[in-house]
TrEMBL record:
InterPro entries, per database record: AAA+_ATPase, ABC_transporter-like_ATP-bd, ABC_transporter-like_CS, P-loop_NTPase
GO molecular function terms noted in the UniProt entry: ATP binding; ATP hydrolysis activity
Function: Part of the ABC transporter complex HmuTUV involved in hemin import. Responsible for energy coupling to the transport system.
Pfam families noted in UniProt: ABC_tran
UniProt keywords, alphabetically: ATP-binding, Nucleotide-binding, Translocase, Transport
Name used for this protein in its record: ATP-binding cassette domain-containing protein
Gene3D superfamilies in alphabetical order: P-loop containing nucleotide triphosphate hydrolases
Top-level taxon of the source organism: Bacteria
Database matches in PROSITE patterns: ABC_TRANSPORTER_1, ABC_TRANSPORTER_2
Domain ABC transporter intervals: 3-237
Length: 257
């Protein structure tokens, strides 16, 4: 079970957003996509998740574009940076939206919704109207919706999150990453777009560092988070330390282009 991008390119009109991308996403791994603004992280996530169709993306050696939409929706789930909802749905009703692709019984779907509420600690939000929630509360509900979508396929799911912790406080960031480790332990492939290099280094098994739509470096956090790579990608001088064998960076000086 793998999701592979082979010589993938993506452009919009004259703007080349991705060039010569070769990545394999595997079960039981947490992948972090990092890089400066405009590097192509979100585009890469959307291409890999099937949100943007392009040649060269295969799921278990089958072209993504050849797979039925319903099948893809049960195996792949993606939470974008902005997932606003203007309807006055309650929390549990938003969670139910994740079950739309599944031809499963109402009772089965309700059990999954309750499991996710328990797992994410959403009891206090269960009957709250989504539009009255804070940004962090909305994000927790949206994460729950994504989990409901793949909850009964965890051992073969591919999940994608774009800046998932931006709205979360420290405690809920830790809850989120603990949840990602749980998903990976059950066999899911987890991919995260993250701006915080230290968070990515701490929790990801593999990192993909992008710059100008190309892969600058790929591998373990120790292989990717280096003084030289940070200079090339972000134009910053930095010090790289080690914390529990994981790299930890401190950026010092911004170097003008």
């Amino acid at each position: 079970m793998s999701l592979r991008l082979t010589d993938v390119n993506y452009r919009i009109e004259k703007k080349q957003l991705l060039s010569d991308i070769n990545i394999t996403l595997r079960p039981s791994e947490i992948n972090g996509f990092i890089g400066p603004n405009g590097a192509g992280k979100t585009t890469l996530m959307r291409v890999a998740s099937g949100s943007l169709n392009t040649p060269g993306v295969t799921l278990n050696s089958v072209p993504m574009t050849a797979l039925p939409i319903e099948y893809r929706a049960c195996k792949l789930a993606c939470l974008n940076q902005s997932s606003e909802l203007d309807f006055p749905f309650k929390c549990f009703e938003v969670l139910r939206l994740g079950r739309i692709p599944h031809l499963t019984s109402r009772s089965h779907n309700e059990r999954i919704v309750e499991d996710v509420i328990d797992r994410l600690g959403l009891h206090s939000l269960r009957n709250r109207v989504y539009t009255t929630m804070s940004g962090g509360e909305k994000q927790r509900v949206q994460i729950g919706r994504i989990l409901c979508q793949i909850w009964d396929n965890l051992d073969s799911a591919f999940v994608f999150f774009d800046e998932p912790t931006a709205e979360l406080d420290l405690a809920h960031q830790l809850v989120f990453f603990d949840l990602m480790k749980m998903l990976a332990a059950k066999g899911a492939s987890v991919s995260l777009v993250l701006h915080d290099i230290n968070l990515a280094s701490r929790f990801a098994d593999e990192l993909v560092l992008l710059r100008s739509g190309r892969i600058l470096a790929m591998g373990s956090p120790s292989e990717v988070v280096t003084k030289q790579n940070m200079m090339q990608a972000f134009s910053v001088d930095s010090e790289v330390y080690r914390l529990d064998a994981r790299p930890l960076i401190q950026a010092n000086i911004v170097i003008p282009d």
